[in-house]
Amino acid sequence: MDSSDSGAVTPAPSSTAPRLTAKGQATRERIVAAAAQLMFERGVAGTSTDEVQAAAGVSASQLYHYFADKRALVSAVISWQTEAVVGGQAPLFAQLDSIEGLRAWRDAIVGLQRDRECVGGCPLGSLAAELVETDPAARVDLDAAFGRWAGGIAEGLHRMHGRGELPPDADPDRLALAILAAVQGGLVLTQVARTTEPLEVALDTAIEHVAALAHRT
Prior knowledge:
The protein folds into two domains: 22-84, Arc Repressor Mutant, subunit A (Orthogonal Bundle), CATH 1.10.10; 89-215, Tetracycline Repressor, domain 2. The chain is 69% helix and 0% strand. It is built from ten helices and no strands. Helix 1 crosses helix 4, helix 7 (123-131) crosses helix 8 and helix 9 (172-193) packs antiparallel against helix 10 (197-215). The radius of gyration is 19 Å and the shape is elongated. The two termini are 33 Å apart.
């Protein structure tokens, strides 16, 4: 999923952010949105604060008023992308308590990559690939983001399990983690191959496993 698409949600400000005026909040969000787009397209290392400043249409003093350094800006970008990528799936997560709902979610993810011509991959996955070995704080933030994503998938599976539609020995949390791993691996291969087939195969296989478990009940 990708926050650069026109249908992406506008994330709410972090609860730890200082209280700002409406104008200040709008300026801060404009800076973060510009940084998120540039870092998605060019990577964190390939994006300078000068480029973010220019893209957001702010002065250097404005940028550093909201963000003490690039690390603080990267942290805000991770929060932004988490809300866009994971928060944007909330309506679909609410329907993941059936095989039909899982397949509709699968179709939405595949369709988005097809619309984007398989360019860019996952914004959170791209940040993880670049940052987790060099930025411990970013790794923690990204681990929480992926945990939230897996949790969103797991909620529906837990409802299926609670209704007896999955066998007692099925573990909804492990199933959700496997499905999320299929998404991430599929997105990487889809980006490389420029075809959605790897993503389709990965998700179809994961969902077919859930369906096979459901047939045991």
